[in-house]
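Moderator note: this is an archived Q&A kept for reference. The question asked for a predicted structure of one protein chain; the sequence and the answer are reproduced below.
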Amino acid sequence: AQAHNHLAKARSVSLQHNFPVGLNNREAMSSAKALLGKVELVACLAEFNAMAVFVIFGCGSAMGIPASAGVPAWTLMVGLVFGLTITSLAYTHGHHSGGHINCAVTLGLVLTNQCGIAQGVANFLAQMLGSMAGASVLCLIFPPELDMTGGLASNSVRSGWSTVNALTGEIMGTYLLMTVVLQTACCDRSVESRAQAALAIGFAVFIAHILLIPIDGCSINPTRSFGPALVAAFRYDAATSPFADMWVFWIGPLVGATIAAGHFRLMEWVHARTDPKAPTM
């Protein structure tokens, strides 16, 4: 009887916290199905496709023209392609997945309750696979000797710049992007201009690239950085690993997105306290 009471108590706790206990496989399967039921497959497919296309055209624009031909013009061209590509993809995939196309953006949306945790994890995995797929397609487009970046446009801290310089830039660049996403595509007070959100997001990506391309090639998107680096590591026999500075392109964007999410939640909290009619998160 005592053992039965302990088991009943354990089951009660498990139901409160949504995890199975004991050896009841049926409960475990039920929990797994409930979790998977919260994931929209079409959103994952959209994120995979958008990420692959983003890498192909964004990184491809940097691979085709040598930077030595004119650094200011090259920076402008590459930044513009990245910005226009993200705008196009946000318009074409936003109604399927929200158009994250960036795991830092996905994190920010999860932190502000704009995206569920399960969907966020699924989107992240789709983005990673899409980035690798896009980088693989670039190998079919560009022979190694015609890749002007020498590494599928992988990100790295440029000579003369420190990791602190790059890390700070990545934090601020992603903060800008995440803030624009939240204020134009998520904020209830910007509903009337929602149709222009993708344009503002593209401008933010363009602006960040103009600043950061000379410093580290501009990431503000860990998934964009990972795929090309991984494929380049297998394709090229470079003296320096494309993963040498990879931590910068993960920590920087994720921190920047987190700060932007915190700022957004703070502003929403202030609005809720000063305007009784303001919606709460």
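Archived answer notes: The chain is about 70% helix and 0% strand.
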